[in-house]
Amino acid sequence: MKKKCWIRLCHVNQDILDFAIEDFSISQSIYQDELRHLERWEKENRLHQLRFLRKGSLINCYLSAAATISAHEFSDARIACAKAIALVLVTDDFFDVGASKEEQENLIALVEKWDHHHKVEFYSEQVEVVFSAFYTTVNQLGEMASAVQNCDVTKHLDETWLHYMRSVATEAKWQRNQYVPTVEEYMTDALTSYGMGPIMLTSLYFVQNKLMKHIIKDPEYSELLRLMGTCGRLLNDTQGFERESRDGKLNIISLLVLQSGGSMSIEAAQEATQESVASCRRDLLRMVVREDRVVPRPCKEVFWRFCKTAHLFYCHTDGFSSPKEMLHAMNAIFREPLKLQTSSPLAVQSEK
């Protein structure tokens, strides 16, 4: 009897394995189609012409989106998320290394005018490329999200992107003026400049039907965003510390050392930062598993998955600045067929 049960169980396990292989193949085919869509989007919006933009960033953007929103049925959400992440990287590189003070101010003025941007002249061709990509993409995503939500959410998306862009401009101004903010000043701005505001809002509009305004305005949503943004920013700063130090840029590690008056070492600052990350991660998980709150559970789970994705990208290095570091994961998910380790079946002794 036991031998028959074991044989039947082996057949069941093989069926499950076959189903898993087929599901992975379907997912990989979907991912490849979506990635081709994003590559066309990048060329149509001339983003590949921007010399300041870090190379190979688009596939990293999509990897981040796919790792966070992986279900087959959320194709629109995944693509929208990847485009939002890509626009954040474009903005970050534009204000960090790619634009003059005049170009930065010009871009902000154009975004402020938005539908009336024709009243403002483009300072340069690259400003035109960046703004046009923003204007076209955010409006298209807004139209699609409005259809999902059954109400117009485009204006809210515009406002969220403007808030984020002003935050990045503040950091650029600090850098130009060689201003050294306090840790509190830095973290207040950094939570916005990390970019999770527009990325999260764009994604959730496609994940959750009827994401009402009162949900987004609720303190619970703000706290989820703060905890996720804190984790991401601190992880980013930890892995980017050496590179930014060479470039003369401040981040949380260097600011903690400076604010201590030299009493805190770099190693102690890094350890304190990792403790803060762990604390925020625990607090975020507590909020996610709580029941009977304002923010729907599917939305809270997206916050948690974004947090885990941030750990994937910043585990050993800055995955967005070092595309080669993520190459193995990219190939395994998007390109390579699933490889299974096979072994000989265990010998089964029949009962005497």
Describe the protein in words.
This protein is an all-alpha fold. The chain folds into two domains: 11-211, Farnesyl Diphosphate Synthase, CATH 1.10.600; 219-312. The chain contains 14 helices and no strands. α7 (183-193) crosses α10 (219-246). It is globular, with a radius of gyration of 23 Å. Mean pLDDT is 87; it is low at 1-9 and 344-352.
By CATH reckoning, the class of the largest domain would read Mainly Alpha
Order of helices and strands: HHHHHHHHHHHHHH
Main beta-sheet strand count, sense and barrel state: none
Question: What is the name of the CATH topology of the largest domain?
Answer: Farnesyl Diphosphate Synthase
GO molecular function, one term: magnesium ion binding
Cofactor: Mg(2+)
Protein name: Terpene synthase metal-binding domain-containing protein
Keywords: Lyase, Magnesium, Metal-binding
Keywords:
disordered C terminus; mainly alpha; 2 domains; 0% strand; Farnesyl Diphosphate Synthase
